[in-house]
Write a structure and sequence with these properties.
about 210 residues; alpha/beta; five-stranded parallel sheet; three-stranded antiparallel sheet; 8 helices; binds adenosine monophosphate
């Protein structure tokens, strides 16, 4: 199974990708996670990426393309879920070309949606476990007391100004990608509101039905 999880920042792509990894055995490929790791390591890629990420802007396409393609190759070009890539029409075209050269086209693109106020609430109240990458929400899934405060952090790009910028970038550059896949009859619209497990089952069911029909 080769799928893309698509949607605005805060829609739940990362949490759903982790569930697909756990329950369906897919490799979770998140360009955001790879970039944040590069920043932590202080690599040249990380130094370039930081300037964009902290402001809520997109990292230049060629940088992200290389990271995504390497990760897909590492996954053996199969059984992966892409989270956060592609984010522009150009990236979508690169991905189509890359996968078709490897005879491994996408099976489906899952588009998650929730309302804007839910997005802002989720992002501003999101906290992340520095060690495991697990996400928390201050109201609905607070970090357990057993976890030291030092390893729970708020992403720089989850601060209010960066959230506004990310949503603006999403509307202008990323949302058109949805149409790219819809016109190719690959898009599955999924309601992202509800418990993690509920949304997960919606995704798995929709992908199964879609795969049977195609
Ligand atoms: P995410 O964890 O997916 O929300 O990504 C965090 C940040 O990493 C984004 O706001 C961008 O700055 C950068 N990023 C992640 N994926 C991409 C991509 N496909 N293209 C450009 N920038 C990206």
């Amino acid at each position: 199974m080769r799928i893309v999880l698509f949607g605005a920042p805060g829609v739940g792509k990362g949490s759903q990708a982790r569930l697909l990894m756990k329950n369906e055995g897919l490799v979770h490929i998140s360009t955001g996670v790879i970039l944040r790791e590069a920043i932590r390591e202080g690599s040249p890629t990380g130094r370039i990426a930081r300037k964009y990420i902290d402001k809520g802007r997109l990292v230049p396409g060629p940088v992200v393309r290389k990271l995504a393609e390497t990760a897909i190759e590492d996954a053996g070009c199969d059984r992966f879920v892409l989270d956060g890539y592609p984010r522009t029409i150009e990236q979508a075209e690169w991905l189509t070309e890359f996968l078709s050269e490897r005879n491994a086209p996408l099976h489906a693109v899952v588009s998650l949606s929730v309302s804007d106020d839910v997005i802002v609430d989720r992002l501003s109240k999101r906290r992340v476990n520095l060690e495991t990458g697990e996400n928390y929400h201050l109201d609905f899934k607070p970090p357990p007391n057993s976890i030291g405060a030092a390893i729970v952090f708020q992403r720089e790009d989850d601060r209010p100004e960066a959230i506004m910028s990310r949503l603006a970038v999403y509307r202008k550059e990323t949302r058109p990608v949805e149409e790219y896949y819809r016109s190719r009859r690959m898009l599955l619209d999924i309601d992202g509101i509800g418990a993690f497990e509920t949304v997960h089952h919606r995704i798995v069911e929709a992908v199964r039905i879609f795969a049977r029909q195609n």
